[in-house]
């Protein structure tokens, strides 16, 4: 019998074992990453396109090209694609980022030969029909119009504009007219320039049988497809910030204000990056963080406040973010500065640092405990340009960082004078 009055022992995580993919170069040169992890008859296939928003010539071009793949191909209409995937119990997700496009298919293994055939026709021979484009563009425009009135969105966009400069590609955002200006020719141009076997990588996880690998090769890997060419890496200009300390975005009817404080950090390949993630977690990266204890629990200024590092190609940005009643804005900013000053002036206790370490190690384990989510780890490594020992080094960083190192990083990088304060609301 288990004695319920005795708390179980707390054991530290010694290592993080994330199964590495088996790499296979298919006949057309595409890389196939195979992670055979599943016992259930389910397969997850990820197609990663090596181009995203930095490659586009017009606003929304990358995102809408990716999104419209499911709206019609040479052999199927949008409704036929949806019906086939639904009939076979499959699920499809399409998304894009700054420098990549992602197509994810979840399928029952017994129907994989059918569902990948649908996927291949979508990806390799889309038609971008005009009527469907207008419907999808209008739907996305309505979402944009709603989000544009949210103070959190106003503050987030303004922070990037102030840090990078209004002409920088990482600070240019679509506006209402961009949805109306979308055309099928724009999408076809982006597809032609970026969607090809030379610019794609495949990850497959789950119960990966020889038959699954064979079907992937038949559909995507036998011969070159698309307008294969040597893809030019986009040139990312240097940030040219506005050099303003405080920026206010007015919203007269705002019931509360969004506060975002940010500054540049080293990119994710820098030697300090992994240790900085521990610092930002201690500051505001989990529910027991310093910012949460002070500003939520002790002062009651907000329901939640967080800090984290957002990564971009060649840049990273520390963002401290919260929403609060309009009358508490200055109090919140003052307490954020107090917590930053404390991190720089006083070493954390061993107990606090151990709590942060245990949280971060547990969070890493939770993120990749599912057999299908393992691919997310290796997709991150691919898109970040990191080495295969990235997660080993992450665990090493968390386990070995000291209280002294936390203080040194805070002194080096948390310079209040370099931080931009954005307040969006009725202030």
Give structural notes.
The protein is an alpha+beta fold and 427 residues long. It has two domains: 22-221, 2-Layer Sandwich (Cytochrome Bc1 Complex, Chain A, domain 1), CATH 3.30.830.10; 246-425, Metalloenzyme, LuxS/M16 peptidase-like (Cytochrome Bc1 Complex, Chain A, domain 1, 2-Layer Sandwich), CATH 3.30.830.10. Helices cover 42% and strands 19% of the residues. The chain has 15 helices and eleven strands. The protein has helices at 61-67, 78-87, 112-124, 130-147, 151-164, 176-180, 184-194, 210-221, 273-284, 290-298, 329-345, 350-367, 374-384, 390-400, 403-413, and strands at 22-25, 31-36, 42-49, 91-96, 101-108, 200-206, 246-250, 256-265, 305-312, 315-325, 420-425. The strands form two sheets. It has a six-stranded mixed beta sheet with strand order 1-2-6-3-5-4, with helices on both faces. Strands 7-11-8-10-9 form a five-stranded mixed beta sheet, with helices on both faces. Strand 9 and strand 10 (315-325) form a beta hairpin. Helix 3 (112-124) runs parallel beside helix 8 (210-221), helix 10 (290-298) packs antiparallel against helix 11 (329-345) and helix 11 crosses helix 15 (403-413). It is globular. The relative contact order is 0.16.
């Amino acid at each position: 019998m288990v004695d319920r009055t005795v708390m179980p022992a707390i054991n530290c995580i010694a290592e993080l074992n994330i199964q590495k993919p088996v790499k296979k170069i298919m006949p057309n040169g595409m890389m196939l990453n195979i992670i055979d992890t599943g016992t259930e008859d389910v397969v997850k296939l990820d197609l990663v396109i090596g181009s995203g928003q930095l490659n586009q010539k017009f606003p929304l071009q990358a995102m809408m090209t990716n999104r419209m793949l499911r709206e019609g191909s040479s052999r199927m209409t949008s409704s036929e694609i949806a019906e086939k995937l639904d009939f076979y119990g499959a699920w499809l997700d399409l998304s894009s980022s700054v420098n990549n496009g992602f197509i994810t298919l979840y399928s029952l293994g017994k129907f994989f030969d059918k569902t990948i055939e649908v996927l291949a026709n979508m990806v390799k021979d889309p038609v971008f029909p005009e009527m469907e484009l207008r419907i999808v563009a209008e739907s996305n425009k309505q979402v944009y119009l709603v989000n544009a009135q949210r103070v959190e969105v106003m503050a987030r966009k303004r922070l990037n504009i102030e840090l990078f400069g209004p002409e920088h590609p990482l600070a240019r955002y679509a506006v209402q007219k961009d949805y109306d200006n979308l055309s099928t020719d724009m999408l076809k141009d982006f597809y032609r320039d970026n969607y090809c076997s030379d610019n794609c990588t495949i990850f497959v996880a789950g119960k990966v049988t020889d038959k699954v690998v064979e079907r992937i090769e038949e559909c995507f890997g036998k011969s070159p497809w698309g307008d294969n060419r040597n893809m030019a890496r986009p040139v990312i200009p240097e940030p040219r910030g506005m050099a303003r300390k405080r920026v206010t975005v007015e919203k007269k009817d705002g019931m509360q204000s969004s506060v975002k404080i940010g500054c540049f950090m080293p990119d994710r390949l820098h030697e300090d990056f992994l240790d900085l993630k521990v610092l930002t977690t201690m500051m505001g990266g989990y529910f027991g963080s310093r910012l949460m204890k002070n500003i939520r629990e002790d002062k009651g200024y907000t329901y939640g406040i967080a800090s984290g590092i957002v990564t971009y190609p060649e840049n990273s940005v520390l963002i401290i973010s919260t929403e609060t009643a309009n009358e508490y804005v200055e109090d919140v900013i003052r307490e954020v500065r107090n917590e930053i000053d404390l991190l720089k002036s006083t070493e954390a206790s061993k107990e606090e640092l151990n709590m942060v370490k245990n949280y971060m190690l547990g969070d890493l384990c939770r993120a990749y405990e599912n057999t299908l989510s393992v691919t997310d780890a290796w997709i991150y490594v691919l898109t970040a340009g990191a080495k295969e020992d990235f997660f080993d080094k992450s665990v090493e960083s968390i386990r070995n960082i000291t209280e002294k190192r936390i203080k040194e990083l805070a002194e080096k990088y948390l310079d209040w004078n370099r931080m931009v304060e954005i307040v969006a609301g009725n202030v």
